[in-house]
Amino acid sequence: MELTEKDAAIAYAKAWNALDCSDFLELLADDCTYESQWVTSALEGKEAISKYLTGKMKTVKTGGGATVRAEHALTTVPAFLREEGRDCVVLTQCIEKEVQVAILFEVADGKI
């Protein structure tokens, strides 16, 4: 079975809801890139992304008062995105206030 953006989104949501990204990390290409408004510059490569996500999930797991919920969804903002109805994850993080973000994935050659 070929990996799809939907598969990637579901795997990412499961990772956040379990606070364990090990299965998700197996889907990453060695030369993948992670870009976010929460990181100062793009993270390049599977190792850097692994370190970042593992650290974030460990922080949430060990306390600090943060809660995270992740859900598979479809985009509905075609002016911003390349097409309407694209698979994504809506991640809701609450520390002092609730913040929601959408995460998109690109899949090529069976890897994210």
UniProtKB/TrEMBL annotation:
Keywords associated with the record: Plasmid
Pfam families: SnoaL_2 (PF12680)
InterPro entries: NTF2-like_dom_sf, SnoaL-like
Keyword rRNA-binding: no
Lineage top rank: taxon: Bacteria
Location of the SnoaL-like domain: 11-112
Stated name of the protein: SnoaL-like domain-containing protein
